[in-house]
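Long-time lurker, first post. I've been practising inverse folding by hand and with some scripts of my own, and I keep getting stuck on stretches where the structure tokens seem ambiguous. Below is the full token string for one chain I'm working on. Before anyone asks, I'm not after the true native sequence, just a reasonable design that respects the backbone. If someone could post their per-position residues I'd love to compare against what I wrote down in my notebook.
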């Protein structure tokens, strides 16, 4: 009689634990699906931000290149001006065409 009661308690405990583990497993699957949806949305947001910053960077690169070009142009003009205003070292006059 005592053995039957123990077997019944063990069977009930195993059944209860099995049901509990199944419920927890289903719950975890649902949570993982929600996390996957959330990370998919975050990935889309990150991609949009990357595209936005790349589009903002294009005009900045253009302006930077333009400024560098102007600086080089000013340097060339300064060299040309220096060439024509500099006196020759040998004392002679510079011939112009």
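-- Answer (accepted) --
I ran through it position by position. Result:
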């Amino acid at each position: 009689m005592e053995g039957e009661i123990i077997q019944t308690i063990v069977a009930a405990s195993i059944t209860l634990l099995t049901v509990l583990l199944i419920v927890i497993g289903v719950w975890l699957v649902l949570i993982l699906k929600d996390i996957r949806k959330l990370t998919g949305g975050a990935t889309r947001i990150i991609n949009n931000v990357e595209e936005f910053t790349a589009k903002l960077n294009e005009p900045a690169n253009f302006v930077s290149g333009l400024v560098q070009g102007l600086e080089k142009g000013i340097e060339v003009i300064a060299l040309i001006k220096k060439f024509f205003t500099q006196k020759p070292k040998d004392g002679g006059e510079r011939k112009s065409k």
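A couple of notes from the structure itself: The two ends are 128 Å apart (CA to CA). The chain has a mean pLDDT of 85. Happy to go over any region you disagree with.
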